[in-house]
C-alpha cells in the first residue's frame, strides 16, 4: 500500500501534467496558438525601447503576452494568408490574444478599411 507521501507526489505529478504548457520561465510555450482581434497603429518609440516606423513588420501585444517577448517574432494567419512581425511594443488596451500591428502587416492580411478582425497567431 502506498504511503501518504507517495500519494501526494503522484497527485502533484498528475496536476503538473494537466497544467497548461509553460516554459521554465513561466511564459507560454512557443507552439501555443492564440486567437484574438487584430488592429493597426502608428508605431513610434515602443515599450521595448526602440523606435520603429509604419513600414516595418512590427507588433504591439497585450500585457499578458508582452512580458519577456521583446524582439521575438510571431506568425499571424488570416484566411490562409500569413505575415510575420517583430514584438516591439505593448498594447495596454488589447485583450489577451489580441494584437496591434503596423499598417504594413495589417494590409498584407486584410484591407485597411476593415479596421478590426480576428486572427490566429503564434510565436516563431
TrEMBL record:
Keywords carried by this UniProt record: Signal
Signal sequence coordinates: 1-19
Name of the molecule in the record: RlpA-like protein double-psi beta-barrel domain-containing protein
CDD domains membership: DPBB_RlpA_EXP_N-like
PANTHER family documented for this protein: PTHR31836, RLPA-LIKE PROTEIN DOUBLE-PSI BETA-BARREL DOMAIN-CONTAINING PROTEIN
Organism, as annotated: Xylaria grammica
Amino acid at each position: 500500500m502506498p504511503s501518504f507521501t507517495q500519494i501526494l507526489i503522484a497527485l502533484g505529478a498528475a496536476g503538473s501534467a494537466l497544467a497548461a504548457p509553460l516554459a521554465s520561465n513561466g511564459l507560454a510555450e512557443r507552439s501555443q496558438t492564440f486567437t484574438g482581434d487584430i488592429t493597426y497603429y502608428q508605431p513610434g518609440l515602443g515599450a521595448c525601447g526602440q523606435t520603429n516606423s509604419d513600414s516595418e513588420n512590427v507588433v504591439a501585444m497585450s500585457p499578458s503576452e508582452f512580458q519577456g517577448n521583446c524582439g521575438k517574432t510571431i506568425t499571424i494567419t488570416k484566411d490562409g494568408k500569413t505575415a510575420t512581425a517583430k514584438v516591439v511594443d505593448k498594447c495596454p488596451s488589447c485583450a489577451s490574444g489580441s494584437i496591434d500591428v503596423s499598417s504594413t502587416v495589417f494590409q498584407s492580411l486584410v484591407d485597411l478599411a476593415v479596421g478590426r478582425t480576428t486572427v490566429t497567431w503564434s510565436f516563431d
